[in-house]
Amino acid sequence: MKTSKLTTAIQFARNLRTTGALYETSRRVELEICQKITNDPNQTYVEFGMGHGNITREILDRISPSSQLYAFEVNSEFCQHVEEHVDDDRLIIINDGAENISQHVKTKVDGIISSIPFTLFPAQKRRSILAIAKDQLKPEKFFSQVLYSSILTRLLTEFFPDTKVIKLNGIPVEHVHHCRNNG
Fold it and tell me: For every one of its 183 residues, what pLDDT tens digit does the chain have, with 9 covering 90 and above?
């Protein structure tokens, strides 16, 4: 059973400091942010900021049956919601922050998809998460991040010089950053 848009909006508003949004990302973002995912066998992907699982579902639709998705979410209610509504053995839900990826994922990963609210984080936490993500990511693989502005593009390019920004016009405007790890 799907959660109503009103219920989701209320939950996101109640948790604005951790979600950074009043509602889930748009379908256009779901499709765009997952563009770099392949269905090659035995891949490992990570999602930062699972929310209610709309991007999670899109990732699972794209990865191979032998691949895995580690989905990080700091809100335990959101983790429980996804556990109840997404039945997929490839999904590993982790109720923890993105900065702790190396404690849970013991291998290099083939891609990171993120919707965490970087603009709400202190500068040092942003930098720490990006450094850890870059270290965890295999060479030539992508860290893809959605933001509601391009204000942090410069920071992303510090860690990932090969960054392309896709601007999705709407209300609000959404920016998907595809950041290639060049080593």
Answer: 344 444 444 444 444 444 444 457 889 999 999 999 999 999 999 999 999 999 999 999 999 999 999 999 999 999 999 999 999 999 999 999 999 999 999 999 999 999 999 999 999 999 999 999 999 999 999 999 999 988 999 999 999 999 999 999 988 899 999 999 997
- Whether 91 and 69 have beta carbons less than 8 Å apart is answered as yes
User: Any idea of the CA torsion for 82, 71, 65, 88, to the nearest 10 degrees?
Assistant: -20
CATH of domain 25-180: 3.40.50.150
Domain chopping of the chain, boundaries: 25-180
Question: Tokens for 33?
Answer: 């942010």
Taking every pair of C-alpha atoms in the chain, what is the biggest distance, in angstroms? 43
